[in-house]
Design a protein that fits this description.
Elements: H1 3-14, E1 18-20, E2 26-29, E3 50-55, E4 68-73, E5 84-85, E6 106-108, E7 124-132, E8 137-146, E9 153-156, E10 160-167, E11 170-174, E12 177-181, E13 185-189, E14 195-199, E15 204-211, E16 236-238, E17 246-255, E18 258-266, E19 271-276, E20 281-284, E21 305-310, E22 317-324, E23 327-329, E24 346-354, E25 371-374, H2 384-391, E26 398-400, E27 403-410, E28 415-416, H3 418-421
The chain binds 2-(3,6-dihydroxyphenyl)acetic acid and fe (ii) ion.
2-(3,6-dihydroxyphenyl)acetic acid binds near residues 298, 343, 358, 374 and 380.
Length: about 450
């Protein structure tokens, strides 16, 4: 996309209005009177629009878990030609069965540069995942690298997409309106919602958690109280905005792991008004209210949970999204960085910027745009340099503000795609960060 194109997208992105609040029953109309009052499906919807319900939960799920939106659109979604299979590129879906699950600690450098002309969808590269899209369980880890705005439209029937930009801003044109997601923000596109990604900068890179399971919600706060962690009002949904475009538009649908394409004779981003709670949103991770220990010991990272996808077992997430945001460390007589551990949950970590406090062991390690995978029960923790430094550090209050890292923590091991298992950017020597940890035992 030309510089002018990006400038136009940036101007649009910087002027957006929002609706605030997580999980709210929002409503919005781009034209006055477009939203029916007092009923969802009048005999004739206002302004000659078509009424359509988009369900994100079974009709009969309990009220707290029930998700649906009503869309008032120029043409009904049903007015489309058949979809035919198209190339999946480097995108894969669950079940992941092409490699043997690997118990080793693994770490990758950033993705290589994309070929010129790569849009967000073509730039998606699947690292691995678990569960089964057709069973609506599990998750996948994708990364993306793109240099071109999409002109086509994408929708994922398999799950919701949690997008974590690492470099380059994104303008998300969705059925519900426009959202801006810069590095340090997250964007969530619910299952089935159609959208197009335009680049706000020359290139864009980031991570995507595709969640096949129950939609992400805010974690319960228990004794923390009524406030803290990610506060609901900081989640921003779009206001209605529509494209009244007649002419060929390619629409790509991901269905049970494969991409399917159809050329519509209009843009499906033609929703003039909507109401409901199955809506896309963005959230600025710097708004996260970080809570931690103000006495001793390093708390478990669950205290940094931004969003959680619950399973049928209380407290056991299909996947948690966790952020390691700037914070103070004040623990007394405490080894302050992440401890050595083996976890039944599997941890994929990414770095948006700067450094991560468990991996201070120098250049070429855990770098922005890279990622690490510590699968179920694999032993990991601070690297040698971090351990040595933190074991003898002067325990004055210390501000950690030189990085923004995150974790997708999932209940099942992550099985790699062949592309991830054999990637040139897979670091062959990652194990070495734990070599040379000396024996200090003095019985
Ligand atoms: O492995 C990691 O770096 C993630 C992590 C962070 C932390 O603060 C405690 C446990 C944990 O798994
Ligand atoms: Fe860990």
């Amino acid at each position: 996309m030309s510089g002018t194109g990006n400038e136009q997208a940036r101007k649009t992105a910087e002027a957006l209005d929002h609706l605030s609040g997580f999980g709210n029953e929002h409503s919005s109309e781009a034209l006055p009177g477009a939203l029916p009052v007092g009923r969802n499906s009048p005999q004739r919807a206002p302004l000659g629009l078509y009424a359509e319900q988009l369900s994100g939960s079974a009709f009969t799920e309990p009220r707290h878990a029930n998700r649906r939106s009503w869309l008032y659109r120029i043409r009904p979604s049903a007015a489309h030609p058949p979809f035919t299979r198209t190339d999946n590129g480097a995108l894969r879906g669950a079940p992941f069965t092409e490699t043997v699950p690997d118990p080793n600690r693994l770490r990758w450098d950033p993705l290589p540069e994309p070929p010129r002309g790569t849009d967000f969808l073509a730039g998606l590269w699947t690292l691995g995942g678990n569960g089964d899209a057709a069973q609506r369980t599990g998750m996948a880890v994708h990364l993306y690298a793109a240099d071109t705005s999409m002109t086509r439209v994408f929708g994922d029937s398999d799950g919701e997409l949690l997008i974590v930009p690492q470099q380059g801003g994104l303008l998300l044109r969705t059925e519900f309106g426009l959202l801006r997601a810069e590095p340090g923000h997250i964007a969530l596109i619910p299952r089935g919602v159609r959208f197009r990604v335009e680049l706000l900068d020359a290139t864009a890179r980031g991570y995507v958690c595709e969640n096949y399971g129950r939609p992400f919600v805010l974690p319960d706060l228990g004794p923390i109280g009524a406030n803290g962690l990610a506060n609901p009002r900081d989640f921003l949904a779009p206001v209605a905005a529509y494209e009244d475009v007649t002419g060929p538009v390619e629409v790509v649908n991901k269905f049970c792991g494969n991409l399917w394409s159809a050329t519509y004779d209009h843009s499906p981003l033609d929703v003039v008004a909507w109401h409901g709670n199955h809506v896309p949103y963005v959230y600025d991770l710097r708004r996260f209210n970080v809570l931690g220990s103000i006495s001793y010991d390093h708390p478990d990272p669950s205290v940094f949970t931004v969003l959680t996808s619950p399973s049928d077992t209380p407290g056991l997430a299909g996947v948690d999204f966790v952020v390691f945001a700037p914070r103070w460390l004040v623990g007394e007589d405490t080894f302050r960085p992440p401890y050595f551990h083996r976890n039944v949950m599997s941890e994929y970590m990414g770095l948006i910027e700067g450094a991560y406090d468990a991996k201070t062991g120098g250049q070429g390690g855990f770098v922005p745009g890279g990622g690490s995978l510590h699968n179920m029960m694999s032993a990991h923790g601070p690297d040698r340099d971090t351990f040595e430094r933190a074991s003898s550090a002067d325990l004055v209050p210390q501000k950690i503000d030189d990085g923004l890292a995150f974790m997708f923590e999932t209940r099942w091991p992550v099985t790699l795609t062949p592309a991830a298992a054999t990637a040139d950017h897979l670091q062959p020597e990652y194990d070495r960060v734990w070599q040379g940890l000396e024996r200090h035992f003095r019985p």
